[in-house]
Automatic annotation (TrEMBL):
Record-annotated FERM domain positions: 201-492
GO molecular function: actin binding
SMART domains hit by this protein: B41, MyTH4
Subcellular location: Cytoplasm
UniProt source species: Didymodactylos carnosus
Keywords: Actin-binding, Cytoplasm, Repeat
GO cellular component: cytoplasm; cytoskeleton
Pfam families: FERM_M, KRIT1_FRMD8_FERM_C, MyTH4
Chief location: cytoplasm
Family: Belongs to the TRAFAC class myosin-kinesin ATPase superfamily. Myosin family.
Record-given protein name: Uncharacterized protein
MyTH4 domain boundaries: 47-196
Length: 492
C-alpha cells in the first residue's frame, strides 16, 4: 500500500462549500500592478471572468514562449475553477500539471505570474465556488514556491488581510517554504485531493521486520522529517543513519534527507508521468558505530532483520560453529520459521548447509538451543547482533557485480561499503581482494557502470565495473564521505 487519504473528524460537511467571507479591507495587488503589470486597467489586478490575452507581468514582454504559457496557465486555472463536482471527484495529475508545470520551468520564471493570476482571481471574486477553488490552488502553490521579495510582501499582506480560513494556512505554508527552501516539482494530485476533501495524507511505510504502519505526510514534509516522525513513533532513540527508501521494481533508492517527499515521488514518475507503483521502506542506511544493545528498539525492529538477511544470503565469512550458535539464536528471535533441525535453509546460509549431514546440524543446534532456553526474543536478537558485530563485514552494504574487464579483481565480486571504506570481496571465498579508505578514492557512475579511481601514492588506478546500481553505490559512498568530513572538522 502507498499513499492514502485519511478522513479527519470535522464539524462541517465536505460536500458543501466554505461560507464566503466578506472582502472588507483586503490588501490587493494594485500597488504592485502599477509597477510591474503590463496593463494599467483596474481589471488587471482583480477578478476577471474571461481569459486573459497576455501575461500579467511586464517582464514577459518580448518573450513569446513565456507569454503563451502564461495565457495557457490562466486558461487552465479557469477550467479548474469551473469543474463540475463529478469531475472534481476524478481529478487527474494532468489537471494539476497544466496549471503548475510552467511555474517550475525555465528557472521558475513564471512562478510570480502564477501568484499574480491566483491572487487576481481571489480579489473581489463574486462566486463562492470559484473563490474556494482559487484558494485550493493558492494553498498548493504556497506549499511549493516563494515569489520574489517585491511580490512576497504583497502576497503576505494579502493573506494576512483576508478573513478566509485558508489564508492563514497559506501564510504558514509560505513561511515554512521560506525557511526550508522551494520544492523542485509541481504538486502531486493526491495533495490536491487532500485539500479538496480536507483530509490528511498518510503514507504506508514498510519495516525490516515485515510490518507496516502509516504516517502523515504533507506538502512540506521532507524525508528527514518523516524519518524523525517514524523514530518518535517507534521510540527509537536516534534517527542518525536511518533513512526512508523508495522501491520501484527491482531497485530501492534512498530519499535524500533534504528532499521533499512529494518532489521525490514526482521525480521518479518521470517525464511520461505514468502512475508510479512503489513501496516506502524504513531502514538503516549508514552503520556508524552501531553497538548492539545501545538502542534495543532499533535493534529489535531494524538492525536485527537487516543483518539477519545479509547473514542468510551468505555475505559473511563464517564457520559451522558460528552458524550453529546463530541458528539457535535465530530460532529464538524470529519465531514462526519452524524448527532449525527440520528447516535449515531458514537458519543457516546455503553455502554452509552441505558441510555436514542434517543430523549433525540438528544435534548441535539442539544442544545450543537448550543453553538459551530462558532468554526473550529481544535478548536473542541482541545476542545475534553482538555475535555478528565482531565480524569485519558487520554493518556492510553489499553490491554484487560481474567483473569482466579488470584483471586485478575476481570475476564474481562484491563491492562492500561500510564506515571504514570500500572493499572488494571475492563472492566465492568471501575474502577481501582489496581495501580502500575513503580518502584514497574518487568515484562516479552512469546508468550502466561504476567508476572507481584509487590513489596509491603517486600512482592512480581506474577501474570500471558494469552495474545498473552505480547511482546507488555512489550515493552511499557520498553519504559516508560526508560524515567522515564532518568528523574530521576541528573543534574550536
Amino acid at each position: 500500500r502507498g499513499l492514502v487519504l485519511h478522513i479527519m473528524k470535522r464539524a462541517h460537511n465536505i460536500s458543501t462549500e466554505i461560507e464566503q467571507q466578506p472582502h472588507y479591507n483586503i490588501h490587493t495587488l494594485k500597488g504592485y500592478a502599477e509597477k510591474f503589470f503590463k496593463s494599467t486597467k483596474i481589471t488587471a489586478w482583480q477578478y476577471e471572468k474571461d481569459d486573459i490575452k497576455a501575461g500579467l507581468l511586464r517582464k514577459l514582454d518580448q518573450k513569446p514562449e513565456l507569454q503563451a504559457k502564461a495565457v495557457q496557465m490562466f486558461h487552465s486555472i479557469q477550467q479548474y475553477a469551473k469543474m463540475s463536482p463529478q469531475d472534481r471527484k476524478k481529478i487527474q495529475q494532468i489537471d494539476i500539471d497544466s496549471i503548475f508545470d510552467a511555474a517550475f520551468e525555465k528557472a521558475k520564471a513564471l512562478k510570480e505570474e502564477l501568484y499574480c493570476q491566483l491572487i487576481k482571481q481571489l480579489t473581489y471574486c463574486p462566486d463562492i465556488k470559484i473563490e474556494t477553488r482559487m484558494w485550493e490552488l493558492l494553498w498548493l502553490l504556497t506549499g511549493c514556491l516563494v515569489p520574489g521579495k517585491a511580490l512576497l510582501q504583497h502576497v503576505q499582506l494579502f493573506l494576512r488581510s483576508s478573513s478566509n480560513p485558508a489564508a492563514l494556512e497559506c501564510y504558514n505554508r509560505i513561511q515554512k517554504i521560506l525557511k526550508q527552501g522551494e520544492r523542485v516539482r509541481p504538486p502531486h494530485v493526491i495533495e490536491c485531493n487532500a485539500r479538496i476533501n480536507r483530509v490528511k495524507i498518510r503514507q504506508y511505510v514498510h519495516f525490516p521486520n515485515g510490518r507496516e504502519h502509516d504516517f502523515v505526510v504533507e506538502s512540506t514534509t521532507k524525508a528527514i522529517e518523516l524519518v524523525a516522525n517514524i523514530c518518535k513513533e517507534l521510540k527509537i532513540s536516534s534517527s542518525d543513519g536511518l533513512s526512508v527508501f523508495l522501491e520501484t521494481g527491482k531497485k530501492m533508492v534512498s530519499i535524500p534527507n533534504d528532499s521533499y517527499f512529494f518532489d521525490f515521488l514526482t521525480q521518479l514518475r518521470g517525464h511520461d508521468k505514468k502512475k508510479l507503483d512503489y513501496k516506502i521502506h524504513f531502514k538503516r542506511k549508514l552503520w556508524i558505530d552501531i553497538v548492539p544493545g545501545e538502542d534495543r528498539q532499533a535493534d529489535a525492529i531494524v538492525h536485527f532483520y537487516q543483518e539477519k538477511d545479509k547473514y542468510l544470503l551468505g555475505l559473511h565469512k563464517c564457520s559451522m560453529d558460528d552458524a550453529v550458535n546463530l541458528a539457535a539464536l535465530l530460532a529464538k528471535a524470529d519465531r514462526g520459521k519452524g524448527a532449525p533441525e527440520s528447516n535449515l535453509a531458514n537458519f543457516v546460509p546455503e553455502f554452509l548447509i552441505k558441510s555436514a549431514p542434517q543430523s549433525e546440524w540438528a544435534k548441535k543446534i539442539y544442544n545450543v538451543s537448550n543453553q538459551i532456553r530462558d532468554i526473550t526474543d529481544d535478548d536473542a536478537k541482541e545476542k545475534f547482533l553482538k555475535y555478528v558485530s565482531a565480524w569485519p563485514t558487520y554493518g556492510t552494504s553489499f553490491y554484487q557485480i560481474k567483473n569482466e574487464t579488470e584483471n586485478d579483481f575476481p570475476e564474481d565480486m562484491f563491492i562492500c561499503i561500510n564506515q571504514n571504506g570500500i572493499n572488494i570481496m571475492n563472492a566465492i571465498t568471501k575474502e577481501y581482494a582489496a581495501k580502500y579508505a575513503y580518502f584514497n578514492i574518487n568515484h562516479s557512475s552512469n546508468a550502466i557502470s561504476f567508476l572507481l579511481e584509487v590513489h596509491l601514492g603517486r600512482q592512480t588506478k581506474k577501474y570500471v565495473f558494469d552495474t545498473e546500481m552505480g547511482d546507488i553505490i555512489e550515493d552511499l559512498i557520498d553519504e559516508y564521505l560526508s560524515v567522515t568530513a564532518q568528523d574530521e572538522q576541528p573543534d574550536y
